[in-house]
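Q: Got a minute? One more chain.
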Amino acid sequence: MRLVPVQKLKEGMKLGKKIYSADGVTLLAVGVELTNNLIRRLMGIGIDYVYIQDVLTEDIVIPEVLHEETRRKALRTIQSSFQKISESSITSRGIGGYRHLGRDFSVVMQSILDDLNSQEVTMIMLMDMNQTDHYLYRHSLNVCIYTLILGAASGLSHEQLKVLGIGSLLHDIGKTQIPLEVLLKPERLDDKEFEQIKSHTELGFKILKGEPDIPLLAAHCALQHHERLNGTGYPRGLKGSEIHEFAQWLGMADSYDAMTSHRVYKKAMLPHQAMEILYGGSGTMFDQKKLQVFRDKVAIYPPGMSVKLSSGETGVVCRIDPSIPQRPVVRVLTNEFGEVLKAPYDMDLTQQLSIVITQVEGLDTFGETTIL
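A: Always. Here it is, folded:
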């Protein structure tokens, strides 16, 4: 299968991966044949890309990071908990009327860790664009997966990963206290509204620190995830080692997923674009060594993505070598003149060092998408 921008979908194409609702319920199943009406609905609910079945790429496997039941349970827990908190009173002692936050998220976190361990997930290839909003729930889960893989790569213990994961799942919980008209405003925020958005870090800390079953370090993840090495972050303007290591991982993952997700006010960036922006803050906003680990663990050209090569040929990423994720195996489908090959072949970019990826298919590139 391959990843196709929704604006380039055509009637008769068949879905290669499910489309999920905000709480993990299947809206469209694998194999559904798209109609013009369905394509318009996909555009309307904020999905930028979908995976499509294709004879030439039918053997390309798009790995699932989590089992479907784990993903559904996590999203439902995030949704129900955030909704309860948004309706509850927040005091210095925690959340009035809701006493199971720590227990609920500990159970979910153990399921996520079990999935990542059982599937030996070592690379981040989410490209989780087959899910409708609510953005906040999806973002919370994605960021959690990113930070857990990065934390494991840096040698954290199981207990440390559990704390990091809970802090990641709940890092934006303070946004439950922000008015929806501000949180979902499609236009540029004014200064007052931006200050309201920034307050979610301290609000999140206030919510979590009063919960007896939530580790205090998880609360500090919520407080510090917008701090930056050079002191330009918020809410406290912390610098360097003043920012906890967990919050530093979280800050990178939060920024990356925000850039690669569809928002009410912007389209999703492609992974390589977001990574370039992160690297622009290397050594100033983000720790250089941690960013290197992040880059080595993120598939900026995930399987199924259409790419153009410096040779002029185009194709679809079909496999990734985890040791060199920036140079995948590409199934070449057209020659340098744009002609469809009668016999497509796989090119391993780790062996063809003179050839590089120069472009990836987005909403405004490559012209028409041909599916066989």
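A: Residues 68-297 form a domain with the Hypothetical protein af1432 fold (CATH 1.10.3210.10).
Q: Perfect, thanks.
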